[in-house]
Specification:
It contains 24 helices and 24 strands. With about 700 residues, the protein is α+β, with helices and mostly antiparallel strands. The longest helix is centred in the last third of the chain and has 35 residues, at about 630-660.
Length: about 700
């Protein structure tokens, strides 16, 4: 593609390809092509002038130029643009439309003759008058009626400039409402389903790679190490350890063998299995969760905003004031002065502006909020519910303790265990190997060939003796190693809430390794800070065992926790809390959390959460530090303070204008001017940041990023 470079700064370059370089329908395809490059951080594409703006990684300028030069519009497909590009376009279109609206209004005042401006005003007024009449016909008295009445009053008094100004303000309000609605809808309608295009179909002639849409119930597919299981089904052949933490909340992998069910969205850590398809992608458990979320979000989207409700309730009082003034003073000018002043205009404008400003401020701090209602819910919440695995913890098992028996020392037990486990790295094995490295224990191989028994353990020969390491089931039941009651008591005492690996050499228990999934470093501090911010109840829900849940809760200062809960249980617990009058924040990370996320008054997902959890959540934090929740709480409370402060100012100032108009102190034109000026002032104030960079209050600034 031919282009000119019109802006060229380090790590940021803008190409201008010309107004007719590509059509609007190709914007998404070009965006997808450019952002697919590993050297591109972000991009913007516009067909209006053929513009392509690229933010790239350091030292990649020449690669970006070659990338854009290689674009061939003739070979591009009109593919569906990504959700990210769609949201970007909504933002861009809003800014363009707002600029155009403001520019047209003031340029027409400067350059168009009065008769033409009057004609345009009359033409535009028809829409508001028609809408007001339709609302009245339906038996409602809302802001639409007041808007129409204000315009008609101006026209009847031949105050065309005032009418034009009123309609200008109303158009800005409408533009803001459309933008908020469109952006929220775009975020929520992004696909939540598992994005697997092809699967390996098992046939008599071998495995065949086919599109997933060609799959049928009863077919058999092969899923190997590291792959996501794309359908619900039953294992027909093979064994594998499957990470189901996103579905069940358990941090450790689970053995799946012939006859056991597996579910879409879970991941194979080790092994290979053949799965008989029981439910296709459109009817899996995960798709049903998505359906629950979709219904819940539809219900949320129909709720009327607080500002609109308040504005509509005030409307009748404006008309009462108008008619009362007309009756008592017999002065139409004074009565119109009251009609020129309404509380609803400023309320309807300042509230969405304050919300959008707060949402943008949050986005600047890597916090994505899908709408102002969620900030309000976060500010008013008194209960926060945490999932444990992956939310309060990192879901990264670590070695806690080593227990030695017989003639072996702890270091010897760990050295031998690490030597065996390094051959088959999975999450638990990695914890053992890393634990040995941290203790400075080297583990040279002294054993023979290692045999891996999937999901059970590892077996080999060490100095002529059979050495095995794995679960208690593998060591005791399969290998018939005796663990005495005294030994088990020692293990139970030292392991606490940890999972345990057993090491046996020569048919005797030689040691045990305690593996835990510890809380995030900042978790306790975050919970303490939230309590100081007015959160009265902190609850933990987990699929883990009682001992693991109790230990984690004790470390974090959580007194209310429930263990071994299923996804539907989490949903039920949240609903029960709401029925008891609690206002609930739900923080989760996995597929199993999504029903509860959808049920809560407001929900939050961290950056390392599953895709479906992030999409379900009302608020997403693009980081791994739980202290960012405190930042959201502070921001939301400040927003509500600003909105309430705006309400008080609007009511006080406009009440003064109404009183002045009633007493004949000011004319309708002055009343309209002061009303509009105060509205613009309060809107301008609402655009300012809620927090200051130099504020010393730690709760106002994002905490340092957690170690990755």
């Amino acid at each position: 593609m031919k282009f000119q470079i019109v802006y060229d700064k380090p790590q940021r370059i803008r190409f201008r390809c010309g107004a007719y370089a590509f059509d609007k329908e190709y914007e998404g395809a070009i965006y997808n092509l450019v952002t697919a490059s590993p050297y591109v951080n972000s991009a913007q594409v516009s067909s209006a002038n053929g513009g392509i703006l690229v933010n790239y990684t350091k030292g990649s300028r020449s690669k970006i130029i070659d990338l854009v030069r290689a674009i061939n519009v003739k070979t591009l497909k009109k593919n569906e643009p990504s959700a990210e590009f769609g949201i970007q376009k909504i933002d861009s279109d809003f800014h363009d439309n707002l600029f155009t609206l403001v520019a047209k209004h003031y340029l027409s005042k400067m350059f168009l003759p009065a008769p033409i401006r009057t004609a345009i005003t009359l033409y535009r007024s028809a829409k508001y008058i028609k809408k007001a009449l339709k609302t009245l016909w339906n038996g409602k008295l809302t802001v639409d009626v007041l808007d129409g009445a204000s315009v008609v009053a101006c026209l009847c008094q031949r105050k065309f400039k005032t009418a034009a100004t009123v309609m200008f303000m109303l158009r800005i309000s409408g533009l803001l409402e459309e933008y908020t609605h469109a952006r929220t809808k775009a975020v929520l309608t992004d696909s939540l389903a598992i994005k697997t295009d092809r699967v390996w179909l098992v046939t008599d002639d071998g495995d065949v790679l086919i599109p997933i849409e060609d799959l049928r119930v009863g077919d058999k597919i092969r899923v190997q190490t590291g792959k996501v299981i794309p359908v619900d089904g039953v294992v027909a052949d093979g064994e594998a350890t499957v990470n189901e933490s996103s579905m069940t909340g358990e941090p450790l992998p689970v053995l799946k063998r012939e006859g056991i069910s597996v579910y879409a969205g879970t991941v194979i850590e080790e092994g290979s299995i053949v799965v008989t398809v029981r439910q296709l992608a459109s009817n899996t458990k995960i798709s049903k969760i998505i359906e629950l979320i979709s219904n819940s979000e539809e219900l949320k989207a129909g709720v009327q905003s607080r500002a609109e409700t308040l504005a509509d309730r005030i409307v009748p009082f404006s008309f009462i004031g108008f008619f009362a003034t007309l009756i008592f003073t017999k002065n139409i000018t004074r009565a119109v002065s009251l009609l020129m002043v309404d509380y609803s205009c400023a309320i309807k404008l300042s509230t969405p502006i304050a919300v959008i400003s707060a949402v943008k401020e949050a986005a600047d701090n890597d916090i994505t909020i899908k709408g102002g209602k969620y900030l309000e819910a976060f500010a008013n919440a008194d209960t926060i519910v945490f999932d444990k695995t992956g939310t309060l913890t990192n879901a990264e098992p670590v070695l806690e303790k080593v227990v030695a028996f017989g003639n072996y020392t702890e270091d010897e037990v760990l050295r031998i265990s690490a030597c065996l486990e390094e051959h088959f790295p999975h999450s638990v094995a990695n914890a053992v190997v890393i634990g040995a490295e941290k203790r400075g224990i080297s583990h040279s191989e002294e054993h023979t060939e290692v045999e891996y028994v999937v999901a059970h353990g590892i077996a080999t020969t060490l100095h002529g003796k059979r050495a095995i390491i794995g679960s208690k089931h593998f060591v005791v039941e399969d290998e018939n190693v005796t663990v005495t009651k005294e030994q088990q008591n020692i293990i139970d005492e030292k392991s606490g809430s940890c999972s345990v690996l057993y090491l046996a050499i020569g048919g005797k228990l030689s040691g045990a390794l305690c593996i835990s999934d510890p809380p995030r470093k900042e978790a306790k501090q975050a919970i303490d800070m939230l309590k100081k911010q007015g959160i009265k109840n902190v609850v933990m829900l987990t699929g883990d065992s009682y001992r693991a849940a109790k230990a984690t809760a004790a470390m974090l200062g959580i007194t209310d926790y429930k263990c071994q809960v299923l996804p539907e249980d989490k949903h039920r617990y949240v609903e029960e809390m709401k029925q008891n009058g609690q206002k609930v924040i739900m923080v989760g990370d996995g597929i199993n959390d999504t029903p509860a996320l959808a049920a809560a008054n407001v929900s939050v997902a961290m950056n390392d959460a599953s895709d479906i959890a992030r999409e379900t959540a009302d608020i997403t934090i693009k980081g791994s530090d739980l202290r960012a929740l405190v930042r959201v709480r502070k921001l939301s409370k400040d927003l509500m303070k600003r909105i309430n402060k705006n309400y008080r100012f609007i009511i006080a100032f406009n009440s003064a204008l109404l009183l002045s108009g009633f007493m004949g102190v000011i004319q309708p034109s002055v009343s309209a001017f002061l009303h509009n000026a105060s509205t613009m002032m309060i809107c301008a104030k609402s655009m300012t940041p809620l927090t200051k960079k130099n504020d010393k209050d730690k709760a106002l600034s994002l905490p340092e990023k957690a170690e990755q």
